[in-house]
Specification:
Low-confidence stretches of chain A: 1-5
Helix content of chain B: 40-55%
Number of strands of chain A: 18
Number of strands of chain B: 9
Mean pLDDT of chain A: 95
Number of helices of chain B: 18
Strand content of chain B: 5-15%
Strand content of chain A: 15-25%
Number of domains of chain A: 4
Number of helices of chain A: 17
Oligomer: heterodimer
Largest sheet of chain A: 7 strands, antiparallel
Largest interface: A-B, 42 and 38 residues
Strand order of the largest sheet of chain A: 15-12-14-13-17-18-16
CATH class of the largest domain in chain A: Alpha Beta
Distance between the termini of chain B: 49 Å
CATH architecture of the largest domain in chain A: 2-Layer Sandwich
Helix content of chain A: 25-40%
Shape of chain A: globular
Structural class of chain B: alpha/beta
Strand order of the largest sheet of chain B: 1-3-2-4-5
Chain lengths: ~475, ~375
């Protein structure tokens, strides 16, 4: 086993350690191998292969636990002065390698900054520190009759800061949007240590929206130290419906018509034939090549009834066959199951990953077929299945899952890399975006220039200005 | 879904850390290293010989209350407490167990209790060691004997009230559960073997214990320690529930006729590890004046008091923070009394509650209620 200990000498280590202790106190700095290996990875499936290959992952030199923005600022100033990489860390539940310390450095674990700062009951806003776990916040809000209607599959294990830094999406996105639609204001520590705050106002005409620069920046442009989010009263009612369509095309057409009618189901999920088989497990009749649609509606009872009625009518008109709504309710009650270790994991000798892509309706279905065909044709033994997990007025996202049986770690690595390359190349060819909500991290970094074209240079220039010493999460976002 | 794959890989390599938000230790320390995921990742590296064990790894592996709440939130039902026991056994062999653990084991060998109290004083607080024909054997347990004698007195009072003759287990030793939890499996086997012989020599058909940890050991762990008992083992709450049904125990209002809000804490060893959730609640509901209110986390989801798995012995400050969080949850219900059914939990709650809520063992409340 190779250990990738960065080539720092003991004097350097002692100096940095002492400085970090000065800032956050002795109990908040970790440098033992036990901690280092646990912070060497997020849950990017590639890291599972590396571990099986008995490769140690890139290691941080230190892990620190700041307790407030001022301490974060002091750490950043130290790192900037000494040109040490800094990697913000929330739940470490990302799937793209976004927290892997590729050049060593300091991991700033923000989970000690996990307080609910305030709830504005009149404006329906909550202000939180970034390290609070999503489920913990949701439970606290529920006690007061509110919800942050943001239920990503990682809700139990990821943090609000992580959601914002990676532009996450939850199951109710069709109605409530992604996290970027919920953020009202941010406090950010810049790569040179200044603490900035954006103003928590509903709208303003004061130049570009600076907070959006940091949403999805994956720790490359600064460290988010406080977030103000919109919250909602808990819905009176949430109801579910489920339909089978003869093919994917009919299902997508039905969804388009739902939006044209002005309906806003909170959940719209459309499964392709293979994924529908996995999801339904024989509990409903599925024609060869058929698709499976789950809808949910929430809010005031009267409005839910109307939406449910009209949506059902639309689906039936489009050739949908209604199946037991309990099937959709079952999915809702088990919506996090897919995030647990399932048979698509390394423990079962399977290599798998998810490629979340997005496109407007005019090319959404083409995107699906292009990516699926490219991955399966070029990689014998690899199967791809998908569900369209998030729909909007103008398009949607596809959660494309590839998997293959491969016990040998070396071969698994080849298959994995090849499937990713073919999927992302095909996605760009079909006019899609290479990520809807998982983010870029390392796994998609090489495609950022193709994704954005010349516009990527704007991001690179911003990075150079804000982070002149390139200390913030180097190697991520293609920066 | 039953685990068919390697549980250490499932948890330490393949899992997204889905149980992290319920782990009482991870919630205090906020570190990846001490999550079930982190511990299993380290266990994997240890097993594969990829990492050199040191003092820090020793500490991390003992920063687990073995409460098992993670398993309740694990779809493949990975048993992290069991994995920890195995890992700790390795650390004990390598001399890397925390000093307090080693001292605890040494005390247990010397005095047959983890507190190092004189063995001869084990039953000194119990006036009558035998009554009637002694049909029921009472296994007192170390914490009750040396730290919570009122639980023993209450149990004896109840046994007498129910009309059962009882006897103590003459040369009772530590049940062995604390030893097994911290990696001393051979010593645990030795204690189990001794207790088996002592219990079976009594010729009783029922063995009652007032300790949740002893109950778990005697009923669930002894078969794995080659010491299956040929008697029925009951936790005292199960025994009391039966005798109430039979009309042998009648309860009155212990609060001077007033109604009092009471909340019940499920001890991990009694609840999650042995599935005893209903009997304590049924007893509480049968006590006049008790208004039972549940905490946010109860039954299989009960949060640990922080004492178990060697946590109190090795990391008292961390253990007490966990206990204080549980007390805060109890206070949030509006209850004025926190009831548990384990002397170990009671010791912890009494210490951290600092008088903000009254703490009783259920069996004390029952003894107070006997007409």
């Amino acid at each position: 086993m190779k250990r990738n200990m960065p080539g720092r000498n003991s004097f350097w280590r002692e100096m940095v350690y002492n400085e970090l202790v000065r800032i956050v106190g002795e109990g908040n700095v970790y440098a033992d191998v036990a901690d280092i290996v646990c912070y060497s990875r997020d849950v990017w499936p590639l890291t599972a292969i590396w571990i099986k290959k008995k490769e140690f992952l890139p290691e941080p030199d230190f892990i620190v636990h700041p307790e407030n923005a001022e301490q974060v600022s002091e750490i950043v100033k130290l790192a900037n002065m000494l040109k040490i990489p800094l990697i913000p860390f929330g739940g470490g539940a990302g799937v793209c390698g976004g927290t892997i310390p590729v050049n060593g450095g300091i991991i700033i674990d923000l989970k000690k900054m996990d307080k609910i700062v305030s709830i504005d009951h009149k404006s329906l806003l909550v202000t939180v520190q970034p390290g609070i776990i999503g489920e913990v916040l949701e439970r606290e809000l529920n006690k007061q009759g509110y919800t942050l209607p943001h239920y990503p599959a990682s809700l139990y294990c990821s943090t609000i800061g992580g959601f914002v830094a990676c532009r996450s999406a939850g199951s109710l996105s069709s109605k409530y949007g992604k996290i970027e639609d919920m953020v009202v204001a941010l406090e950010v520590v810049l790569p040179t240590g200044e603490i900035i705050r954006t103003k928590p106002v509903p709208r303003s005409a004061t130049g570009p929206d600076l907070k959006q620069l940091f949403i999805g920046s994956e720790g490359t442009l600064g460290i988010i130290t406080e977030v103000t989010l919109k919250i909602k009263p808990l819905p009176e009612e949430r109801r579910f419906r489920a339909f089978i369509f003869k093919d994917l095309h009919s299902g997508i057409e039905a969804v388009i018509k739902l939006f044209r009618k002005g309906l806003r189901p909170c959940v719209i999920r459309l499964y392709d034939y293979l994924d529908a088989q996995f999801t339904l497990k024989g509990r409903a009749e599925l024609p060869e090549g058929g698709s499976y649609l789950i809808l949910a509606f929430d809010g005031m009872k009267e409005m839910v009834e109307v939406e449910e009625k009209v949506a059902t009518q639309v689906c039936l008109e489009e050739g949908g066959v209604e199946v037991e709504k309990e099937l959709a309710e079952h999915w809702w009650n088990h919506r996090y199951d897919m995030y647990y270790p399932d048979p698509f994991r390394s423990a079962y000798g399977i290599i798998a990953d998810t490629v979340d892509v997005a496109a407007p309706y005019d090319r959404l279905e083409k995107l699906y077929w292009t990516v699926k065909e490219a991955v399966e044709r070029k990689n014998p033994g690899v199967t791809m299945m998908a569900h369209f997990s998030h729909f909007y007025e103008d398009g949607g996202s596809i959660y494309m899952i590839f998997f293959a049986q491969q016990q040998d770690p070396e071969k698994a690595l080849e298959v994995y890399s090849s499937a990713w390359r073919d999927a992302l190349d095909a996605c760009l060819k079909a006019g899609g975006s290479i990520s809807h909500h998982h983010g870029i991290g390392i796994v998609r970094a090489g495609w950022m220039h193709k994704e954005h074209g010349e516009a990527f240079n704007v991001l690179k220039k911003i990075k150079r200005v804000l982070d002149p010493n390139n200390i913030m999460n180097p190697g991520k976002l293609g920066l | 879904m039953e685990v068919k794959a390697d549980p250490i890989v499932l948890c330490g390599i393949d899992c997204m850390k889905m149980c992290r938000f319920v782990c009482v230790v991870a919630n205090q320390l906020k570190l990846e290293t001490v999550t079930p995921y982190g511990k299993c990742l380290l266990a994997y590296y240890m097993r594969e010989g990829c990492i050199e064990e040191g003092e820090r790894i020793g500490d991390v592996m003992y920063q687990c209350a073995t409460c098992g709440l993670c398993k309740e939130w694990c779809l493949p039902r990975v048993d992290v407490p069991e994995i920890m026991k195995e890992v700790r056994a390795t650390l004990v062999e390598q001399g890397l167990a925390p000093k307090s653990t080693v001292e605890m084991a040494e005390k247990t060998v010397k005095e047959r209790n983890p507190y190092g109290e004189p063995h001869r004083n084990r039953f000194s607080s119990i006036k009558e060691r035998r009554a009637g024909k002694g049909e029921v054997a009472y296994f007192v347990g170390c914490t009750t004997a040396y730290r919570q004698p009122s639980i023993a007195e209450s149990t004896v009072k109840i046994l007498k009230t129910a009309g059962d003759g009882y006897t103590l287990v003459g040369d009772e030793w530590c049940c062995g559960a604390p030893l097994a939890a911290v990696g001393y499996k051979k010593l645990a086997e030795e204690h189990a073997k001794h207790n088996k012989e002592a219990i079976e020599a009594l010729d009783c058909s029922v063995l009652v214990t007032s300790c949740a940890g002893c109950y778990m050991a005697l009923s669930k762990e002894y078969p794995n320690l080659n010491a299956s008992l040929n008697v029925e083992v009951l936790h005292v709450t199960q025994y009391v529930r039966r005798r109430i049904d039979e009309g042998k125990i009648k309860l009155g209002n212990p609060f001077g006729g007033k109604d009092v809000k009471v909340t019940y804490h499920d001890p991990c060893h009694l609840g999650r590890h042995c599935g005893v959730y209903d009997e304590p609640r049924e007893i509480l509901r049968s006590i006049p004046g008790v208004q039972l209110v549940e905490m946010e986390w109860s039954r299989a989801n009960s949060k640990c008091c922080g004492s178990g798995g060697g946590l109190q012995v090795n990391f008292p400050e961390l253990s007490e923070r966990i206990g204080r969080d549980r007390v805060n949850e109890a206070i949030a219900t509006g209850a004025s009394i926190l009831v548990t059914a384990c002397p170990f939990c009671k010791v912890q709650f009494e210490k951290v509650a600092e008088g903000e809520i009254e703490v009783y063992d259920l069996i004390e409340l029952v003894a107070m209620s006997i007409k």
